[in-house]
Design goal:
The protein is of the alpha+beta class. The chain has helices at about 1-15, 20-25, 30-40, 50-60, 75-85, 90-100, 105-120, 180-195, 220-230, 245-260, 270-290, 300-305, 390-395, 400-410, 415-425, 430-440, 450-460, 465-470; strands at about 135-140, 145, 155-165, 170-175, 200, 210, 220, 235, 320-325, 335, 340, 350-355, 360-365, 370-375, 380-385. It is elongated.
Length: about 475
């Protein structure tokens, strides 16, 4: 209206041409002609009377709105609920509506009015994320090809993206897959990249992170929960089919695809390490890139505000482990990959949880760790902790040649010599123990003194079978 007033003054009071007025007001000549035509049609001249609102109403009268529909409208709120049910379509609901309302809306008008109603309902709540509160994680839809140097086979690399809610500071890397091992390893590297730990991580409902998706009570993958416990953070999965719950990372994925992956589209990579090396400088440039309407960047906001809001990284790094259930056998061992590990004998017949790391196997019962072993090195190997055996078994297992030798020395030198000779003439440890126990058991039938004499006689005869010698002397 301010420019139209100036056009009216220059035309009616000063008598300027359309070209002069257009140059003075800085609009096109056709715009000046249209404005003057409207002023003349409305019977207005200079000076203009009234306020700008009255002037606008005179020059641009409101067009009459559409006539109200003569038919009843569908219940759009109920229609929205029906459409959320599996298999229900708009056409099906329209057919049911036409059965109730003869001469009602046509299908195209039915859909148009429903879309207009939806626009009035889908009001967006803008979240303000606190510094250090949430890290949003997801995989990009775009993948990158990597050529195997030896075979020439082309493999597809997945792109993991993590972004902080407050600053938008973003991390991205390439991995071979989206399985649990790669998923957790990417989290660890993301925490190291930002130099701290957020209060919560917000993933999508990827199977590597969420075993069973649920709106209110999802089941977190045990290995993912293990990582959360190690870093002392919470896992808050986004709701199913609700991209607004993770709009921050959805936007970050789009930006990474445009500013990191797109510039690399024509390059060839022969290893995952080479691809990640090429991504790093582009990612750094992305984080340092100035906003369009602000002078700062993700990097500046992160360094100034969010870095100090993160909790420090734990002293020891997270070690990836998988979980498996196992039943305790009668020999108080559990089996894993044809290797056997002991647990306390009281757990025979019980089901326990195995935490399997790169070098260790831990056994848990009702959440309490009851055993820990180094991984066996070959199939069929038994790894046994002596304290896990029942007392009677411990007594048998603890029986060894050294203990038997001490018992023989208490009887006499000759007996001890015969016992030592058993180890020299027999090949297997159990055979040696059995023969030695057979000799010492003779003290039940004869006195220790008689056994000592017999053993001396056996040595003189250069035969250590003292039991045979005693049997011949009965």
């Amino acid at each position: 209206m301010r420019k139209i007033k100036e056009i009216a003054r220059l035309r009616f009071a000063a008598g300027r041409t359309y070209t002069e007025i257009a140059a003075a007001v800085r609009v096109s000549r056709s715009t000046v002609q249209t404005a003057v035509s409207r002023l003349v049609s409305a019977g207005l001249s200079w000076p203009l009377e009234g306020d700008e609102k009255a002037l606008e109403a005179s020059l641009y009268p409101t067009k009459p709105g559409p006539k109200p529909l003569a038919v009843s409208l569908p219940d759009f709120a109920a229609m929205r609920g029906e459409l959320s049910r599996k298999g229900v379509t708009r056409r099906q609901l329209w057919l049911e509506y036409r059965e109730r309302e003869t001469g009602g809306l046509e299908y195209s008008q039915f859909c148009t009015l429903y879309r207009q109603w939806r626009k009035t309902q889908d009001v967006v709540l803008r979240f303000e994320h606190l510094p250090g509160d949430k890290l949003f994680v997801d995989y990009a839809g775009l993948t990158m090809p990597v050529i195997e140097a030896t075979t020439g086979e082309i493999r597809t690399a997945q792109i993991f993206v993590a972004t902080l809610g407050h600053s938008g500071y973003t991390y991205a890397e390439a991995t071979w897959s989206q399985n649990v091992a790669d998923w957790l390893a990417s989290h660890v590297r993301a925490f190291e990249f930002i130099g701290g730990v957020p209060a919560a991580v917000v993933p999508d409902n990827l199977k590597s992170g969420v075993s069973r998706a649920h709106r209110y009570d999802p089941d977190i993958n045990p290995a993912y929960q293990d990582l959360a416990i190690h870093y002392g953070l919470s896992v808050l999965p986004a709701r199913i089919a609700t991209p607004r719950d993770k709009a921050v990372v959805e936007s970050a994925v789009l930006v990474v695809e445009r500013w990191v992956l797109a510039p690399l589209r024509d390059r060839q990579f022969f290893s995952l390490a080479a691809l990640n090396a090429a991504m790093r400088p582009l990612l750094a440039a992305l984080n340092a890139r100035a906003f369009q309407k602000r002078e700062d960047s993700w990097q500046i906001v992160f360094e100034a505000v969010e870095r100090r809001a993160l909790r420090p990284l734990p002293i020891s790094g997270y070690e990836y482990a998988t979980w498996k259930k196992a039943k305790v056998h009668l020999d108080y061992h559990v089996e894993l990959e044809r290797r056997y590990y002991s647990v306390p004998h009281a757990l025979v017949g019980k089901t326990v949880d195995l935490r399997i790391a790169a070098r260790t196997v831990e056994v848990f019962h009702h959440g309490q760790r009851v055993a820990a072993h180094l991984k066996g090195s070959y199939k069929g190997q038994f790894t046994t902790e002596p304290s896990h055996r029942p007392p009677a078994h411990q007594a048998v297992i603890e029986l060894n040649h050294e203990r038997i030798s001490r018992r023989a020395e208490a009887i006499g030198e000759a007996t001890a010599a015969v016992i030592r000779a058993q180890a020299e003439r027999r090949k297997h440890r159990d055979e040696t123990l059995r023969a030695s126990l057979g000799i010492l058991r003779l003290t039940h039938d004869f006195s220790p003194e008689q056994l000592e004499i017999a053993c001396q006689r056996a040595l003189d005869l250069k035969s250590v079978r003292a039991s045979w010698y005693l049997e011949t002397q009965r």
